[in-house]
Amino acid sequence: MGYSQAEFSSWSSSEIQHRLEKLQVLGSVLYFAAHPDDENTALIAWLAQEQKYKTAYLSLTRGDGGQNLIGKEIGVDLGLIRTHELLAARARDQGEQYFSSALDFGFSKTPEETFEFWEKEEVLKEAVGLIRKIKPDVIITRFPPDSRGGHGHHQASAMLAREAFDVAQDPAAYPEQVEKWGTWKPKRLLWNTYNFGRGDYTSPDQIQVDISQYNSLLGHNYAEAAAISRSQHKSQGFGDAPRRGQYTEYFELIAGEDTDEGLFKGVDTSWERVESGKAIKQLLSEIIQKFDPNRPQASLPLLLSLKSEMSQLEDSFWVDQKLHDLDEVILACSGLYMDFRSDKDQYVQGAQVVGELVLEARKHDVEVELVSINQQDQNKRITANQPISVKHNLKASHISHPFWLERPFHKGRFDVETEKSWMAYNNDVPLADVRLRIQGVDLNYKLPLQYYSVSPVYGEVREAVSIVPEITASVHEDMVLFSKTELEKTISITFEKHSSENMQAAIKVNLGKDWEVKPREIALDFKDGETKLTKEIVIKASNINKSSSVLTLINSDGNTIKQVKRLNYSHIPKLTSQPDLEIQLIPVDIETPKKNILYVNGSGDLIPSSLRLLGYEIDEVQGDDLSAELLADYDVLIFGVRALNVDPSLASHAKTINQFAENGGVVLMQYHVANVDPSVIAPYPFEINAARVTQEDSEVFIKDQTDPVFNFPNAITADDFNGWVQERGLYFVSSADNNYRMPLEMADTNEELSSGSLIVADVGQGRFVYTSISFFRQLPAGVPGAFKLFVNLFSLDN
């Protein structure tokens, strides 16, 4: 990734000088790990800013399988957030960001399982291709390939790095890549050892690098830069304070040439690594020596001469890289302001998009001419301090949707082409290819179209322009549950027209013939300025034992109707995705006794909305709202996932909570991370740890089939644990007071059975339950057995 046009055209003189110095350095590093937030941001900042290397991070996944501390998004929506958190981090540490097609399917205990999900050969091919394309001199892994790496994804990333290091050098491997980029032999592969978590893997005999330097041009040291960068991972709660003082990184050689003189021993990082590059080196030294921070434009003649000299060199990886970087420096020195904006935030696919190119020359002694926009001649001279704007029309070709979600994806890998898999985000957005003539020399710049507005609170605001189909649809809930007493459901669908004209449309309901649907074709007639129409369809299941189905809508062209989803968080851009509108139809053989439920929100989950699908009315509160008076109106008190992690003050309500249970209420507490003690609000002590069962199809044993939680109001058997998703549970109970029953056992393959997924205690006339089972994943996924068990846990037979 790079800077947006508006950002790099407004660099300060110190930033320009830093970029000039970076033009002198022809060295590159690839940092290699598994997830967003795995990367060592301090090291990336030091490599990119102090050493001035081309520094890239390959995150094999987009973090789809993690949890979310700032909202309720999970799965691919969370992956979209974490993708842009990584891009925000790279914008601050000046690294570049790449991905593979690997899907974060959740915690994995072994690399073998990870490779099975990821389809190892495909991800290896992508890693090798990226190495050949960006040609890193040094590759650095975050994790080791063995049990010290912990997470199976971590170990797998190190194994892939080691294998890709060798395969990238093999001319027989992936010959189509060799034809395009050739082979590549990095100088060395290193493990960036660490001392955090459960182990200290650093040692005095390892390669040591001091990264404590303070960069006066940029105004920070690299631990300070890292804090800003790492704090972008807000969904994972990784806000960090700046660190100062001595800061040493450690490295262990894994492959390649040994070194006792820093990471780049034996690598020529000067222009002399390029044939005929010595003259470039000398000219750059002269430019830097003569640079005047008060008049950056005075460097333009020499910079334009440098561009001419570089353009005459034989095509090579480094010449192309540095020409691109040089063009950014030239624009920044010119003082030209350039912006490509729209006064609309949304356009219909296929329609004409109206963009406005705004330019202002801010230096009197710089000659600037607008030559063309997207090959359309303009030939407009730009006079200092006299802004010009040029209207330019484009076609809205592609809807705004993450490219890796365009096709149905596998359980462990997105279906994308190798070269596309590396991309951080879409490159098919409307843009202006602008040709400028600065001091008589032609240069090209690409500007994405952005929606421009002025907020009375935030001032000037720019957002991505979204492209949408002519008609989209939305539903209040994308999952419908059918029970024995409710085999017929009415679904309201709201259709939205995004064009300005009146229109009619016929939409077909796509659902198997064994479901009764009325009507099967929906007539839409938008008129008199209407933009939204709500229609109802009635769906009837023939019986409660039929299989789940997916309902979609088809337009007259045979294409599936899309829905528009928008994510809006202040630390990342507003994000638009447009998946097919799909409604899950799930028959569940379940009894649902009437209960008044109070739900204490945790870090964000979809349990309340999932229970409402069963007809439950649920009131949601924050922890500081709890009181005996409030609880008097409820039968059930449920704590959301990680509630105590989010709000430790909940512990102060322990007496009130336990009295509620003694008086006949049910307290149901879901999983917590092991850095808090959830038993502080329990009637009896218990302890949790980081143990988990990650195989969603692992066998589950019911130790006592007569236990009430397996019999009222629903009979629970081992079959109810079929069809679960991602994992069984996490952060299990490791020990519990004898007053607790531990009625379930489960384990991953080749591990001892654990009883820590569920503990139950009778308390006075009520019940206390703590569960590590991942209901927060199962209920939103519509797993029938999980619904039945969850309802049983908060239902008393009295």
Could you explain how this protein is built, in words?
The chain is α/β, with parallel strands linked by helices and 798 residues long. It folds into five domains: 26-269, 3-Layer(aba) Sandwich (Rossmann fold); 274-328, no CATH class; 335-466, Immunoglobulin-like; 471-587, Immunoglobulin-like (Sandwich), CATH 2.60.40; 597-793, Class I glutamine amidotransferase (GATase) domain (Rossmann fold), CATH 3.40.50. 23% of the residues lie in helices and 28% in strands.
Please supply descriptive tags for the structure shown above.
seven-stranded mixed sheet, six-stranded mixed sheet, 23% helix
Task: Assign the structural class, choosing from mainly alpha, mainly beta, alpha/beta, alpha+beta, or little secondary structure.
Answer: alpha/beta
Strand line-up of the largest beta sheet: 3-2-1-4-5-11-8
CATH architecture name of the largest domain: 3-Layer(aba) Sandwich
Measured as a percent range, the helix fraction is: 10-25%
Largest sheet: 7 strands, mixed
Radius of gyration: 30 Å
Assign the CATH class of the largest domain.
Alpha Beta
C-alpha end-to-end distance:
61 Å
SS elements, strand count: 45
% residues in beta strands: 25-35%
CATH superfamily of the largest domain: LmbE-like
Domains, number: 5
Question: How many separate helices?
Answer: 19
What is the structure about, briefly put?
With 798 residues, the chain is of the alpha/beta class. The protein is globular, with a radius of gyration of 30 Å.
